[in-house]
Design brief:
Blueprint lengths: L4 H13 L3 H14 L5 H12 L3 H14 L4 H13 L3 H11 L6 H14 L3 H14 L4 H13 L3 H14 L4 H13 L3 H14 L4 H13 L3 H14 L4 H10 L5 H12 L7 H17 L2 H13 L5 H18 L13 E7 L5 H8 L5 E3 L5 H6 L7 H11 L9 E4 L8 H7 L4 E6 L2 H9 L14 H22 L3 E5 H6 L1 H11 L46 H6 L10
Parallel strand pairs: 1-3, 1-4, 2-3, 4-5
Helix pairs in contact: 1-2, 1-3, 2-3, 3-4, 4-5, 5-6, 5-7, 6-7, 7-8, 7-9, 8-9, 9-10, 9-11, 10-11, 11-12, 11-13, 12-13, 13-14, 14-15, 15-16, 15-17, 16-17, 17-18, 19-25, 22-23
């Protein structure tokens, strides 16, 4: 005789709440067979599968529940979430269109519509749908939180922060929202507030994976290595195969931790299919461990495998960069300043990624009157606007986006490397700006980029050596172009000189930036400022020359990028 449905339902809920997802699915599956007309059990089976990570199979069970009870909001929501999570956004939106007229709480369905569009990269459409969701229900904290995420991705940090605060006014202890808000606060250089927010999130929900990862990232950005490792370890205790955490530990680990870390990564690889993003991250983690062991051939092979997992968008990334630089060349060729000087004075430190721009920022911002603003995306965002602004408009828009700086600030550092494409508009908008160009052997740059995983889509070119060579050549063309117009305003420094003579070169850098030199500039590793770039761990090590000429030991692995460098653009390479 079959058990009573309520008894079965209570057992399944207990298993779900206890994290026993396999047992919950088995019980729910049996209950669905015993009571084939009851939608509750296939819905629970789908929930168990979704929480165990098998969302594709969960979709099928949610569909069964939906067929049995198509007007139940909870079942509708579960099916929509699973469809979106498995990349079936269009199907989810078609379903939303059908059920929207019959559902009282339209705000929830509009939220799912916005979520599907955000996952597909259509941020403007996502924001529009979330605007409607919030208009329909101003107390929809989930929609406010998600609109904050979208606005953050759109570069609207103050608006994102306002959304997060509004969401927290409704649900004060929401770990998701607190974690998201910490990221915005970090971008705005309000690190202490950001850390406080994410610490509150972890305190409210010690098993919240996103909050734990965000806590670890923020601690590492602040130079608190051991605390960051502890947070990552807590995350790995919760999710042993967490690929991002294992990669972070591969970068932060101490020698005695290496054997256990190798074993953890090996076990985690069994959880992911070959070629997946998680497998790619684990290949990067393995590569870094092998590199620490001195196994250059093994690490090269692992780096190659890791990069392959992320290489698909590489060509598109360089195509877009080339098209943008061409447009900038055509629109900005005037050499005379057009905007009024303003303070604090901007110092643009630019070059290739991994060329030493973070090192230079840490040197100069050792002076308390110099604010290290990190890689500000604002110039590129303004240039990409549909209607190109004039110099005064660009200066106004840029300054309106800047983070709050200490009152004693006389200059700030914008170290976005890709600003090499925008030197013309920068100098037109900021006549008192200083432009410091950091040049490094492109082969060493290529090696460093190849060994670094970048999450930003615009950096996908680093995962494909042929596209890396195209990007390096684009950079060389851009610098040749701008130097032909503004050679008197672009001051060049070689990375190799900086690391060989940090004392002498820090004095040169200070003079070029129009700053008074201080002894602290020669020891950037002592700068406790937050570092938000991929160089976060390297700059804490102190200045060294170990990586100069490092490409030579990896010539075979880098042959594609070396062969792709245009000799006419790189005449000084040996």
């Amino acid at each position: 005789m079959a058990e009573h449905p309520k008894v079965l339902a209570d057992r399944i809920m207990g298993q779900l709440n206890g994290g026993q997802f396999k047992s919950a699915f088995k019980t729910a599956k049996g209950a669905a067979k015993a009571y084939p007309s009851e939608a509750f059990f296939p819905n629970l089976a789908g929930m168990a599968l979704a929480q165990s990570g098998d969302e594709r199979e969960a979709v099928q069970w949610f569909r069964k529940a939906f067929r049995l009870s198509p007007h139940t909001p909870n079942i509708q929501d579960n099916l929509l979430q699973a469809l979106i999570n498995t990349g079936q956004g269009k199907i989810a939106r078609d379903l939303i269109e059908k059920i929207l007229p019959k559902r009282a709480d339209s705000s929830t369905l509009l939220f799912f519509d916005g979520l599907s569009r955000m996952r597909e990269g259509d941020l403007q459409a996502a924001e529009a749908q979330l605007d409607q969701a919030i208009a329909a229900d101003p107390q929809n904290a989930s929609a406010l939180n998600l609109r904050g995420v979208v606005r953050f991705e759109l570069g609207q940090e103050p608006l994102a922060l306002a959304d997060y605060r509004a969401a927290l006014a409704i649900t004060p202890n929401a770990a998701d929202t607190l974690s998201n808000m910490s990221q915005v606060l970090g971008r705005l250089h309000r690190a202490d507030e950001g850390l406080e927010a994410v610490q509150k999130a972890v305190a409210q929900n010690p098993q919240h994976a996103i909050a734990l990862e965000r806590l670890a990232v923020m601690l590492n950005e602040s130079g608190r290595k051991e605390e960051a490792k502890s947070a990552y370890r807590r995350l790995l205790n919760l999710i042993p195969a967490h690929a991002d955490a294992l990669l972070a530990m591969a970068l932060l680990h101490d020698e005695e931790e290496r054997p256990a870390l190798f074993a953890e990564i090996g076990t985690a690889k069994k959880s992911y299919r070959k070629g997946s993003t998680e497998a790619g991250l684990l290949d990067f983690a393995t590569a870094h461990l092998l590199l620490k062991l001195g196994d250059l051939a093994g690490s090269d092979a692992a780096f190659a495998a890791g990069n392959l997992a992320f290489a698909k968008p590489a060509k598109v990334a360089v195509d877009q960069a080339e098209a943008l630089s061409k447009r900038v060349f055509e629109q900005y060729s005037a050499s005379s300043p057009e905007a009024e000087p303003s303070n604090p004075r901007p110092v643009f430190v630019l070059g290739l990624p991994r060329s030493g721009t973070t090192l230079v920022e840490q040197m100069l911002s050792a002076d308390s009157k110099v604010f290290g603003a990190g890689e500000l995306p604002y110039v590129g965002r303004i240039i990409r606007m549909e209607t190109a602004p004039d110099a005064s408009e660009m200066a106004s828009l840029y300054r309106a986006s800047l983070p709050q700086m200490p009152p004693q600030t006389v200059a700030f550092i914008d170290k976005m490397p890709a600003n090499f494409m925008f030197i013309g508009p920068i100098l037109s908008a900021f006549p008192n700006a200083k432009v410091l160009h950091i040049r490094r052997d492109p082969r060493d740059v290529a090696l460093s980029m190849w060994r670094t995983w970048f999450s930003a889509p615009a950096m996908a070119f680093t995962c494909d050596q042929a596209q890396t060579a195209r990007y390096l050549n684009l950079y060389a063309r851009c610098m040749a172009h701008w130097n032909s117009l503004f050679s008197d305003r672009i001051i060049q420094f070689d990375y190799e000189d900086i690391v060989a003579s940090p004392l002498e070169q820090s004095k040169r850098l200070a003079t070029a930036a129009g700053l008074d030199w201080s002894a602290e500039m020669a020891t950037p590793e002592q700068n406790t400022a937050q570092v938000l770039t991929a160089s976060v761990n390297q700059v804490r090590e102190g200045v060294h020359v170990r990586s100069v000429g490092g490409w030579r030991a990896h010539r075979q692995a880098l042959q594609t990028v070396i062969d792709g460098l245009d000799p006419a653009l790189w005449p000084d390479l040996d």
